[in-house]
Amino acid sequence: MPANLAAGASWWFTLPMCSEDRSRDELAEAREAHSESHEADLERREAAVAERETAVAERETAQAERMNVAETTLAAADERDAVSDTRDAAAEKRGNDADLAEMLDPQSEYGAHWPERRHAAGDRQHAKDDRAASRDDRITMTEGDDEHDTDRT
């Protein structure tokens, strides 16, 4: 290498080296600042995760409570339906027995048993009303608190 280039080369390499040293220092400072902000960011994220987990646990608790209420409502509706079915079957049997007895009795007067028939019909209507109430409870539980028309049964 010629001598005139060798002397000139030293100043050329010196200036960039100084700027490289400065950029290295700045990079180290930036990394240190970034690691501090990274730790703060990590703590913020962990706090947000803990907050979301708490919210999820609260929602799960509320859901469990709603499920208990729903199960209680369904059990009451099923019990009311069972009572209605029993009442309906008994009323139907009483009505059929009265019809059969009147039909087989050669000296019966038609209509002599209207009170019994009215009571049987009343029991059937009561059973139907109980079923409608159970149906409304189920609809309310699944669709909300809106009023539903019970005449569509």
> What's the total helix number?
2
- What is the H/E string? HH
What global shape is seen? Answer: rod-shaped
* Content of β-strand: under 5%
**What does the main sheet amount to?**
none
Kindly, what is the distance between the CA atoms of the first and last residues, rounded to a whole number of angstroms? 107 Å
Strand tally is: 0
Rg to the nearest angstrom?
44 Å
Helix content range of the residues, please? Answer: over 70%
Multimeric organization: single chain
Primary descriptors:
single chain, mainly alpha
Task: Give a description of the structure.
The chain is mostly helical and 153 residues long. The chain has one domain (10-152). 86% of the residues lie in helices and 0% in strands. The protein has helices spanning 3-104, 114-143. It is rod-shaped.
Topology:
Elements: H1 3-104, H2 114-143
Helix pairs in contact: 1-2
Quick description:
The chain is built from two helices and no strands. With 153 residues, the protein is mostly helical. It has one domain (10-152).
